[in-house]
Amino acid sequence: MTWLITGGAGYIGAHVVRAMLDAGERAVVYDDLSTGIAERVPDGVPLVVGSTLDGERLGRVIRDHGITGVVHLAAKKQVGESVELPLHYYRENVEGLRVLLEAVTAAQVRSFVFSSSAAVYGMPDVDLVTEETPCLPMSPYGETKLAGEWLVRATGRATGLSTASLRYFNVAGAATPELADTGVFNLVPMVFEKLTDNAPPRVFGADYPTPDGTCVRDYIHVVDLAEAHVATARRLSAVPGTDLTLNIGRGEGVSVREMIDRINTLTGHALPPEVVDRRPGDPARVVASADRIAAELGWKARYGVDDMISSAWAGWTSNHPVE
Ligand code: WQD
After folding, report:
1. What ipTM was predicted for this assembly?
2. Can you list the domains of the chain with their CATH numbers?
3. How far is the CA of 79 from the centre of ligand 1 (A)?
4. What is the pTM of this model?
5. Distance 229 CA to ligand 1 centre (A)
6. Site residues for ligand 1, CB cut-off 6 Å
7. Is 90 marked active-site?
8. What is the DSSP track for 124-162?
9. pLDDT tens, position by position, 63-77
């Protein structure tokens, strides 16, 4: 199989490319390099620089490289920005997907893996979120991911394309320092940035109805996440007409306070966090049930929070050398 990985120069996409190669699959990367980094694409893997809104170029790449499956990660992914720029998010994430699916179906590509998000659930009022938990996204970003799932599923039903939507929970860690996340938009890098500045990490709210008052999330190592893509891709190509929606998490809740404690311990810092106001729109608890993916694909996360923090820190310190 030759897989077109859109967004393959991004943080998660580059890990998917690596996992695909490790599994003996061929990969071609399609990325507009708006946030992607060309150096993340391994030698020997073609990198085509282009937008998912460019159907003609996509069609050409699919034909020229004999693409048989697509893993679509290229998207805008900042929740706050999506509130300011909803039209941009709908264009990039929904229209870009629609154009890609047109090229995919015209070329009779057989498999399509879609990068979705736990953001489709919004503020779930359950202990463990299953794939049957109602989807009530709270941001334009989450809406574009839910609309994307609908588009993918409808296309699969109409054309026989094998499809899967993977709902990522909170992704952290890195396979190697070079592949680390360079954005400072999530808890782990935001705490690293504070520690690097010798400032206390910030806790956005400690009055949530959770055991220690801080928000609880399900953190997943990016290497585990990438391996879930390989398992999914293989199922799609082996079983035509597949239609899967899967949570990718560990099924274990970790609070903000617990994360900061582990980060302090593992990085050798001891700055107690500062509690500041809640960040608007943050749900108290979002933890996956990971039962369906275990039953369907036999996939289970291998790494824990300490591996995520240590590997992310190795990446952070290589990008932010201490003077
Ligand atoms: C985690 C917790 C913060 C920084 C978002 C998107 C989701 C997905 C992943 C996708 C929250 C708290 C953070 C800090 C803090 N995106 N926090 N101090 O909001 O769960 O999920 O990213 O592509 O769709 O919504 O992740 O890492 O931003 O925050 O207390 O300095 O850490 O309030 O409770 P979140 P996050």
Report:
1. 0.98
2. 2-170+221-248 (3.40.50.720), 172-218+251-287+302-319 (3.90.25.10)
3. 9
4. 0.98
5. 22
6. 77, 79, 117-119, 170, 186-187, 190-191, 202-204, 215, 217, 256, 279, 282
7. no
8. --SSSB-TTSPP--SSHHHHHHHHHHHHHHHHHHHH--E
9. 999 999 999 999 999
